[in-house]
Amino acid sequence: MKTILKTPLRILGILCATLSLINCSSDDSGETITEFNITSINPETGMVGTQVTLTGSNFPSEASAIDISFGGTMANIISASSTEIITSVPEGGSSGEVEVVANGFAKVAPSNFTVLSELVANTVQNLEAPQTGGQGQPIGGPFTKFSFATGAVTDSETDWDIAFRGTTIAVNGGVATGTAEEPVRNGNAGIAIENGIFSDLTSAAGITYLQDADGSFAVPQGSDEGWYNYNPATFTVTPIPGKILVIRTHDGYYAKVEILSYYRDAPAQPDAFMDESRVYTFNYVYNPNQGETSL
User: Fold this and answer.
1) What is the mean pLDDT of the chain?
2) Torsion over CA: 192, 193, 196, 199 (sign)
3) Which part of the chain has CATH 2.60.40.10?
4) Is the confidence at residue 42, as pLDDT, over 60?
5) Which of 19, 20, 242, 266 is found 20 to 30 A from 201 (Cα to Cα)?
6) Closest Cα partner for 47 from 113, 143, 141?
7) Class for domain 29-115, per CATH?
């Protein structure tokens, strides 16, 4: 009878021990450590330095007990608790799995993380936009086309976003306006003029974009109608402060432009008789990430 009673108790003990090991391990001191779980990662995209929160259960509360990597590159831990780890995208991190290693376990977040490219911020100086005619004569001459992807003037028939001739700005979207020697539009670019401070406009979302149309450009022409003011007393063209051009590029990316000057070398007080006009200087910010609207 003793043998019959002892065997079930021994089997029961083995089962209990096995079940406890499913979600636990032991450190060198024999202390039981519970396996952690990751239930979410937020956000799932971001640039280097973006703060990222991992939510779950049974995380170590000491940051020093946790290793996190983005695409194999180790990241710093900002804070940790049993249910939340806050980290940031490391320099050199790449898109892919976010792995957490702690207490002898290794887990990956339920969703991959996409590391976005940095915004491109630059100043274009002395972009020449000559024209022929004027002062009662028919205006002509080719437009100077610009690509935000390359940050340069381009001769491409397709890979351009905006184009300049005199005070006129064309966009690679819409249809021909009927203007002499205008570029062929074959993209889906759009443009809007927003009012505000250039650095404060941080998103291209929620904006209505216009395209060039038969008989009119999306950027209005004429003094005080679009981006500039013409002073008949000094014969000078001056960008209107606070006018920001927001552009959806020909291939669906986003940029913003602040025109600084219409004269070569951007003089503070341009002289219409001494300073060469039809030469643009402007700041721009371009987001090289498809579908991302932050600026």
Assistant:
1) 90
2) positive
3) 29-115
4) yes
5) 266
6) 113
7) mainly beta
Indicate if the alpha-carbon torsion angle 167, 171, 172, 177 is positive or negative: negative
DSSP for 15-38, please give it.
HHHHHHHHSEEE-TT--EEEPPEE
Burial 150-178 (b: 16+ CB within 10 A, else e): eeebbeeeebbbbbbbbbbbbbbbbeebe
What lies within 8 Å, CB to CB, of 175 at 6+ separation is 185, 211, 212, 213, 214
pLDDT value of residue 288: 98
- Beta strands 45-46 and 114-115, pairing class: parallel
> What are the tens digits of pLDDT across the range 134-169?
777 889 999 999 999 999 999 999 999 999 999 999
240 phi, psi to nearest 5 deg:
-75, 125
Mean per-residue pLDDT, 170-181: 97
Q: Which of 151, 156, 154, 189 is nearest to 170 (CA)?
A: 189
> Rounded to the nearest 10 degrees, how much is the dihedral formed by the CA atoms of 129, 135, 141, 145?
30
**Which of 169, 185, 178, 88 shows the shortest CA–CA distance to 131?**
169
- pLDDT tens, residue by residue, 252-262: 999 999 999 99
User: Nearest-5° angle of CA 266, CA 244, CA 272?
Assistant: 30
Q: Is the peptide bond before 43 cis (omega within 30 degrees of 0)?
A: yes
Contacts of the segment 271-275: beta carbons below 8 A, 24+ positions apart? 271/236, 272/234, 272/235, 272/236, 273/235
CA torsion through residues 226, 231, 237, 239, sign? negative
pLDDT of residue 133: 86
Task: Decide if 129 contacts 164 (C-beta within 8 A).
Answer: yes
